[in-house]
Amino acid sequence: MSGRWPSLSFVALVLAWAAAIAFLAWGATDPELEQVWRLHQELRSGRRVSLSPPEAALLERTLGAHPGLAEDWLDGARLGLLSAEEGGWLRAPGAVLLRARGAAPQPALRLDVQLAAEHLPLEVELRCGEALGRLRCERAGSHELALPAGEAALCQLEMAGPGGRPLPSPPAVRLLLSEAP
After folding, report:
1. Which of 56, 148, 151, 164 is disulfide-compatible with 51, CB 3.0–4.6 A?
2. pTM of the complete model
3. What percent of the chain is modeled with pLDDT above 70?
């Protein structure tokens, strides 16, 4: 070993290869807006029922950076479902809701439960950030749950039958959203 340093052309070649690999790795990642668009499409189509904590954080961060996105998704409403539904009837035993900036302080979430007796009582859990709301529906009919006060927030609704048993899909539950307190 003679103790010579590598030549300048060798160092330039190694740096060029490193830059090329870094550029390709960066190009292979999905931009955040594309990830959010994909999540939104999966929610709307019913392929996804809920969001993991990192996905919810990504969605909230993106909605904070792009406030017009929430308005577009909600068609000008202040509160709406991002999940698959038909006329408010859920297609899965869970849902993701979005409350846009300027929504009423405590909008009401009304559940029209039309489950058979063997699927009652219905256990409903609503998570909006750190806030948690629970509702137990002992009978079929109309029930109301207030969303926690706050600014723009994603809320995740999860439902289960007696003893935490899964519900049939679709669950025969309709969500009616109101901005009235």
Report:
1. 56
2. 0.75
3. 90
pLDDT of residue 15: 92
CATH of the domain at 136: 2.60.120
Strand (E) or helix (H) holding 8: helix 8-28
- Helical (H) or strand (E) element with 67: helix 67-73
Count other Cβ atoms within 10 Å, centred on residue 100: 20
Q: What size, in residues, is the chain?
A: 181
Residue 63 lies in a domain: no
Q: How far apart are CA 122 and CA 179, in angstroms?
A: 24
β-strand pairing of 85-86 with 89-90? antiparallel
In a domain, 161, yes or no: yes
Position 37 in a domain:
no
Q: Which single residue is written with the structure tokens 């109301």?
A: 144
Number of domains in the chain: 1
Angle between helical axes of 53-65 and 32-45 (0-180°, round to 10): 110
16-62 pLDDT, tens digit per residue, is 999 999 888 877 777 888 888 899 999 998 888 889 989 999 998 88
d(CA 93, CA 95): 7
The residue segments making up the domain with residue 108 are 75-181
Tell whether 50 is covered by a domain: no
Phi-psi sector, 171: left (phi>0), alpha (psi -120 to 50), beta: alpha
CA–CA–CA angle 98, 69, 86 (5° rounding) = 50
